[in-house]
Amino acid sequence: MNSALSGYTYDDPALAASGVTRGDLAALHASVLWSDADAAALRRAADILVPQTEAILDVWYGFVGANPHLVATFAGADGAPDAAYLADVRGRFGQWIADLCTRDHDARWLAYQDEIAVRHHTTKKNRTDGVDSTSAYVPLRHLIALIVPITVTIRDFLTNGESDPAAVDTMYHAWMKAVTLSVALWARPYSPTTW
Amino acid sequence: MNSALSGYTYDDPALAASGVTRGDLAALHASVLWSDADAAALRRAADILVPQTEAILDVWYGFVGANPHLVATFAGADGAPDAAYLADVRGRFGQWIADLCTRDHDARWLAYQDEIAVRHHTTKKNRTDGVDSTSAYVPLRHLIALIVPITVTIRDFLTNGESDPAAVDTMYHAWMKAVTLSVALWARPYSPTTW
């Protein structure tokens, strides 16, 4: 956790409680086949991934930068990528790797998923970083589609720190479940009445 | 393809064209890291998976049946599972396995993804099968979350027909990409203005 990280408010007591209930979360856990073994596998994964955070972000940002429809999310008022906006989001994206692997799925976690959700949606995009952007929201279709690259790129990084293929596979699938669960939660403001 | 399959209209010339453009699809393909190699891998996967369709559906329906929040989708007017509705959807779900592996991502494919989308959403749920259901839509969060079980359960079936782990892995990831891409397309009616 890095309390000095720009716009990072996970542990801010002022964060609004989530409207997602414990029952909603239990059902989502069931839908993604979540178990305590996944939580444990992600904690092991954190030991491997967190020291590689900058290298992981280099891969992800390289991918975003190579795709105009993705880098458009980080446009300033002139439509060109805003370097300060990219840098601020990068810091929080790195912290997200650690949080995804180590945070309990409790009320605070749910509250921060809501915050991440509205920061992707028209509700609040660009406000955290004070950006005047041509991008008013991250399209829902790409939020969902990015489950794939955010998942598949992590396997090589797990392999860097774990030689047993079965152990890598366990951590890899725990990561896949956690990413998909996160995107399901982040979709809420996009479809409040049919979420 | 089974033209006698109840409610299956993939090849119906009357199917409305999709509003998803070729440019939209190209961007989604890029977001899920899609390549020609994935299309080829899925065609190989079809040879393995299609003969196992009923066994795959047994696993998926077993999972749905074990989860009240999922089986609720198939409720009749009294809130209890409707056997005819379950059976009709099962037939199309089996055909979907073949279609996901073998159909080109062309205008017809996009049009039928739109049709599948509205059949999950309030727009058209229950109409195809003439069901009076207590379920008015499949919640978007579970549509997204189910990417995980629909993906991870397929690996054992691939292994049944392919002994080379690398070849299984290639087909497995092509499947993951295709499933995620499909869900991204199916999310459109849930969030038409921010899709």
Automatic annotation (TrEMBL), chains A, B:
Protein name as annotated: Protoglobin domain-containing protein
Pfam families the record matches: Protoglobin (PF11563)
Location of the Globin-sensor domain: 24-192
Organism per entry: Sporichthya brevicatena
Superkingdom of origin organism: Bacteria
